[in-house]
Amino acid sequence: MKQFTCTTCPNGCLLTIDEKTLEVTGNKCPRGAIFAKNELTCPKRTVCSLVKTTVPGYNVISVKTNKEIDKKLIMDLMKELNKITIKEKLSIGSIVIKNVLNTDVDIITTEDMK
Ligand code: SF4
């Protein structure tokens, strides 16, 4: 048995999953069962971070993944973010890295510089 706290909604249900049968208990809704199975087999996260800019008034700009990414790729993702520097003013939602690490996930801005 493994336990996870469901982060899908603010209820934060404590989920227990049987590693052999994948039976989930403790969930108040079906999304909890999906969450627990994903956490057990392939945990994913939305990642928020900062990237450097050379734009006056902005030392850094906040960015995030537009979809969840495999948790095991987060360190490689942070290395990719450290490689880039934004050189022009961008609108919120602008793509700064497309298909990062060949994951079909884009890195987008979460603040408006314009
Ligand atoms: S199991 Fe359902 S109700 Fe409970 S935290 Fe997850 S999404 Fe929310």
The CATH topology of the largest domain? CPE0013-like fold
- Taking the alpha carbons of the first and last residues, their distance comes to 50 Å
Q: How many runs of DSSP E, i.e. beta strands?
A: 10
Spatial arrangement of strands, main beta sheet: 8-5-6-10-9
| CATH superfamily descriptor of the largest domain | CPE0013-like
Strand content: 25-35%
Helix content: 10-25%
Main pleated sheet: 5 strands, mixed
Task: Give a verbal description of the structure.
With 114 residues, the protein is an alpha+beta fold. It has two domains: 2-41, no CATH class; 48-109, CPE0013-like fold (Roll). Helix content is 19%, strand content 30%. The chain is built from two helices and ten strands; from the N terminus they run E-E-E-H-E-E-E-E-H-E-E-E. It has helices at residues 30-41, 74-83, and strands at 2-5, 14-17, 24-25, 44-45, 48-53, 60-65, 69-70, 85-86, 95-97, 107-109. The strands form three sheets. Strands 8-5-6-10-9 form a five-stranded mixed sheet. A three-stranded antiparallel sheet has the order 1-2-3, covered by helices on one side. It has a two-stranded antiparallel ribbon with strand order 4-7. A hairpin with a 6-residue loop joins strand 5 and strand 6. The protein is elongated and about 55 Å long. It starts with a strand and ends in a 5-residue tail after the last strand. The model has no long low-confidence stretch (mean pLDDT 96). It binds iron/sulfur cluster. The site of iron/sulfur cluster (SF4) has 12 residues, from helix 1.
